[in-house]
Amino acid sequence: MLLLDGISSWFKFKLILFNDISVYPIVCQKEKRQSPIGICKEKAKSAFIPPLVFYYYNFKYKVTVENNGQTLIMKIFDDSCVCELPTVTGGNLDGEYVLDNIHFHWNSEHTINGKRFPLESHLVHYNKKCGTLENAMKHPKGLVVMAVMFEIGHCYNPKLDNILSTTEMISNKLNKPREIDGGLIIDYLLPQDKNKYYTYEGSLTVPDFNETVQWIVFERILPIGDDQLKRLTKIQLKGSPIKSNTRHLQDSNNRHIYYATDKITAKKIKDYIKEKFRGGC
Ligand SMILES: [Zn+2]
């Protein structure tokens, strides 16, 4: 995962270290819930989890895309509009989470059933109660990151066109955001079927590796054309391509990884309710 906030201290740190992942294990030796992890469907615990509820993901926003030296990162800017930012709630989330940014990793950070994908997008959300991304990073239930895998398909994905056409304008242009022509509907970057996903408690995948992230990794995969992937990942910094922005897999430490599915038995629903309200009055 990747966060942004101008030239913050982690950003400067990460500019130096991003391609030196050998540093990571030293930082994380004492930690127990680091990300990313390898997800195995057979080992994940099928669970009844109420549907996620999305607000404003179908609204067309004005969005900028920026080359921050590590990836392409997109943020909504809509000072001309008083509308709300996209938020997600429901599922097993503790409250409402506001979308802060979307960015990409090539190759994927998570693996599913041993497979690493050519591209993974992260939609980074912060808990509305925390007010800002920075505050949320310190809170145990501060962040929700949705991860979407992309696979090279037979045809190209027209929903990525707006992003790609702007991407080429920011190659070698560090921290100079450009507005995406035609705006962006955030839902275009999510699978249609949002009821099947893996979820687990994890961390940021960049320093300071805060263990404050509820991960939602969708099972459904989005297509991307071979040429589109090349256009997206040929973005450069100081004349050289950004070669690696993927953290290596972390130990799951026997964490519970839940698989949310709409195909579920009455017994599992009963178990979920029992567990959810355990310890209540
Ligand atoms: Zn990321």
Q: How does this structure look, described?
A:
This protein is α+β, with helices and mostly antiparallel strands. The protein has a single domain (9-275), classed as Alpha carbonic anhydrase (Carbonic Anhydrase II). The protein has helices spanning 9-17, 24-28, 133-136, 161-167, 226-233, 266-276, and strands at 38-39, 45-47, 52-55, 60-61, 63-67, 72-76, 87-90, 97-105, 111-112, 115-116, 119-127, 143-152, 178-179, 184-185, 197-202, 213-218, 222-224, 236-237, 240-241, 258-260. Residues 1-29 have low confidence and may be disordered. The protein binds zinc ion. Zinc ion binds next to β8.
Care to give the gist of this entry?
Residues 1-261 form the Alpha-carbonic anhydrase domain. It contains six helices and 20 strands.
- Tally of extended strands? 20
What number is the mean pLDDT? 85
Question: What percentage of the residues does DSSP assign to strands (E)?
Answer: 25-35%
Q: How large is the radius of gyration? A: 18 Å
CATH topology, by name, is Carbonic Anhydrase II
Q: Give the CA-CA distance, first to last residue.
A: 38 Å
Domain module count: 1
Poorly predicted regions: 1-29
- What series of H and E elements makes up the topology? HHEEEEEEEEEEEHEHEEEEEHEEEH
> Major sheet, described briefly?
13 strands, mixed
Q: Specify the overall morphology.
A: globular
Look at the structure and give the CATH class. Alpha Beta
Structural class: alpha+beta
Q: How many individual helices?
A: 6
Give the proportion of residues in helices: 10-25%
- What is bound: which ligands? zinc ion
InterPro entries: CA_dom, CA_dom_sf, Carbonic_anhydrase_a-class
Family: Belongs to the alpha-carbonic anhydrase family.
Catalytic activity: hydrogencarbonate + H(+) = CO2 + H2O
Keywords: Lyase, Metal-binding, Zinc
